[in-house]
From TrEMBL:
Name this polypeptide is given: Membrane metallo-endopeptidase-like 1
Bilayer disposition of the protein: Single-pass type II membrane protein
GO cellular component: plasma membrane
Cellular location(s): Cell membrane
Length: 684
């Protein structure tokens, strides 16, 4: 993923109006290129030295420019000045893009009877119901969910009302019930994914939660949630302490080795192999409307963890375990819902709750066949150049291995938008079953969450032979995740697919009249980054068919590969713990650059709009400006995440450029300059 954090801060009364389509122009219209040239220079802090801190040089004035644009043009500015200076101003380029997508959707949702066909209007009508129910909220009250969905039919939650019956509480049943409503990664993980050995078919995978998911929440955050649902301070303090203690014990279970390895088992066998887990009780909740087939199989990993988990949970008091599950459930619902009750937040929540419908609507609004064919041909040229790089074989792999990699590269496709026109029928079918109301936000939210999980489990029974005729990308298994709810592009490993949401095709990222240089430096980089994920440490596991049978071990045997990897690991400084992201950035910058300039050394004429820079310098500035962002305001709540993310973006730009020899040559950086890595890493 290009964007690590999915939470974008969006606000509506604030508009992104530097686009040339803004309608209030009275002077002679500026060309897109003139406008972008002006903008590029206005973001720069030319007092900074490019060889010392290129991020500051390229982005130093971004924040000032953004604020000025808003204060000059936005009438609501004065009224909401406080909020703009706070969290809600878009923090970066992708934030701006999603802000503008949401704004367009919001206008559509408020307008009536615009839709042409009947099926269009029924999906749109559902979206309007959700949106209206959200707008009617005052305030977002998490306690309502607890009233709507108790842990089982025979007990209430420990903190709500008087109906708590600890003797009736059964953790695995409750977990299954909440799993059906979207909760996952609490105590364990259960999901339907493409099979590792046959990616067209699906299987249930059961595993321990990720390390991130068992990371203790901290008493402060728990107390905040408990106060939200009306607990007294005293009770909240005591309960948070109890749960915190449990979370720490739970997190320690991560240390257990998986000495049994992943295994595929029939449901019936698992029940006798690991009786303490009582897996059937869980599954009966998830498949509540159908009979369980005990001969059906699932793939189970980390059995020692699951065994220890059952022991731990049984030894704790039901109060603690149930409160832990409840707090995790509340945190999940809080994330899903609107951050505050504003028009913008209701659209953002709508995109999370109805990703499929929103993606359909975004496609209708932003799809532009002409731009799409430009982007496709750009992608094709990047692939050709990557093919040449593979053929150069820097890692000295054997010819059959190079051939396997070339085959995989050949298989990688680009898709615009989350689904294809011929999958439209499925989207309609999906929404026919949804029953929403304009007056019940909490009910709607639960209905939509449940439908996603059910649809996901229905994939276990799809008929693969029918699919063979479909040109569809078969991405429905992603519908449970958030991928469709924002405009960040992504790489889908089991499908060998680079997915570019339609919303991304707008300024400041894309316009069909921007210069070829800018197209390569921004969209070219974005596409190359996703393409490179097919060949990073996790991507290489997947072969040309999307099965986890890639030649990882064989490639790992190459000395050159191991050296490259070691070099990358040495550069893993603060804020960038994702080696795959670093690898993708390094590969992508080179790929986009070489695709545009070619590999030979030739001088290009300077851009008449910005004669002070060489073409190559402009390329690096444009690339860096994609990552410009706001330095977050210090506030106790957002501090850590927003700051880390900003620091990570800054570091990304600096490290990626410092690793590319052409950069230091072009800016004349000397050997000791900060923007020149002492050792340059290269894998491909
Ligand atoms: Zn990425």
């Amino acid at each position: 993923m290009l964007k690590l954090s999915l939470v974008a801060w969006l606000i509506f009364s604030l508009a992104w109006r530097t686009t040339p389509t803004a309608c209030r122009q009275t002077n002679a219209p500026q060309s897109v290129q003139e406008m972008l040239a002006e903008q590029l220079q206005s973001y720069m802090d030319t007092k900074a030295r490019p060889c010392e801190n290129f991020y500051q040089y390229a982005c130093g004035n971004w924040q000032i420019q953004q604020q000025e644009q808003h204060s000059l043009r936005d009438r609501d500015w004065t009224r909401d000045r406080q909020r703009y200076q706070g969290q809600l101003l878009p923090t970066d380029t992708l934030g701006l893009i999603d802000h503008s997508v949401n704004r367009r959707l919001e206008l559509l949702l408020r307008r009536k009877n615009e839709s042409s066909s009947e099926s269009d209007s029924s999906i749109l009508e559902q979206m309007r119901l959700y949106y209206r129910s959200c707008k009617r909220l005052k305030p977002y009250n998490l306690k309502k969910y607890l009233q709507l969905l108790p842990p089982s039919n025979s007990t209430q939650w420990p903190s709500v009302g008087r109906g708590w019956r600890p003797e009736q509480f059964d953790w695995i049943t409750t977990l299954g019930r909440l799993r059906l409503h979207g909760l996952n990664g609490v105590l364990l993980r259960e999901e339907v994914l493409p099979r590792w050995d046959d990616s067209r078919n699906y299987s249930i995978y059961v595993n321990k939660p990720s390390r991130q998911e068992t990371q203790p929440t901290g008493e402060g955050a728990m107390i905040e949630l408990l106060l939200d649902i009306g607990q007294t301070k005293r009770t909240a303090n005591a309960l948070a302490r109890q749960v915190d203690d449990f979370e720490r014990k739970l997190h320690r279970l991560q240390e257990l080795e998986d000495d049994e390895g992943p295994r595929e088992m029939q449901l019936g066998y698992l029940d006798s192999y690991l009786p303490q887990l009582r897996w059937l009780s869980f599954m009966r909740q998830v498949r509540i409307d159908s009979e369980l087939d005990l001969r059906s199989t699932l793939i189970i990993e980390n059995i020692p963890y699951l065994r220890a988990l059952s022991d731990l949970v049984e030894s704790e008091s039901p109060d603690t375990v149930c409160s832990y599950i409840m707090l995790k459930w509340l945190a999940f619902l809080k994330q899903q819902g609107p951050a505050d009750i504003s028009r913008g937040e209701c659209v953002a929540a709508l995109r999370r709750a109805m990703p499929l419908a929103s993606s359909w609507l975004v496609g209708q609004q932003f799809s532009d066949p002409e731009s799409e064919s430009y982007v496709r041909s750009l992608f094709q040229r990047l692939k050709v150049r990557f093919g040449q790089i593979l053929a150069e074989n820097r890692m000295r792999l054997s010819p059959p291995l190079v051939h396997i990699l070339q085959q995989k590269l050949h298989a990688v496709r680009l898709q615009m938008g989350f689904f294809q026109p011929d999958e439209m029928e499925d989207v309609e079918q999906y929404h026919v079953r949804v029953d929403l109301s304009g007056h019940s936000f909490y009910g709607n939210q639960l209905v939509l969450l449940r439908q996603r999980v059910e649809a996901n489990h229905d994939l276990l029974y799809i008929n693969v032979t029918n699919l063979a005729n479909s040109t569809g990308s078969n991405l429905s298994y992603l519908s449970e995740s958030w991928e469709a709810s924002n405009s960040s592009p992504l790489y889908v490993r089991p499908r060998n697919l680079v997915l570019v949401p339609h919303g991304l095709l707008q300024l400041p990222i894309w316009h069909r009249n921007i210069s070829a240089l800018q197209q390569h430096a921004v969209m070219g980089f974005v596409l190359a980054h996703e393409l490179a994920h097919g060949f990073d440490m996790s991507g290489m596991d997947y072969d040309a068919l999307g099965n986890i049978m890639g030649p990882v071990e064989e490639i790992g045997a190459s000395r050159q590969f191991r050296q490259g990897l070691q070099c990358l690991q040495q550069q893993m400084a603060t804020g960038s713990k994702w080696i795959d992201e670093k690898l993708a950035d390094f590969v992508a910058l080179r790929l986009a650059y070489e695709t545009f300039f070619g590999v030979r050394d030739k001088r290009e004429p300077r851009d008449p709009l910005m004669p002070q820079f060489s073409q190559r310098q402009l390329f690096f500035i444009s690339f860096a400006q994609f990552f410009c962002g706001r330095t977050p305001v210090l506030s106790p709540r957002s501090q850590s995440e927003a700051h880390l993310k900003h620091a990570a973006d800054e570091l990304r730009v600096m490290q990626t450029l410092a690793n590319f020899e052409e950069f230091s040559r072009e800016f004349g950086c000397d050997k000791k300059a900060k923007m020149q890595a002492s050792q340059r890493c290269r894998i491909w």
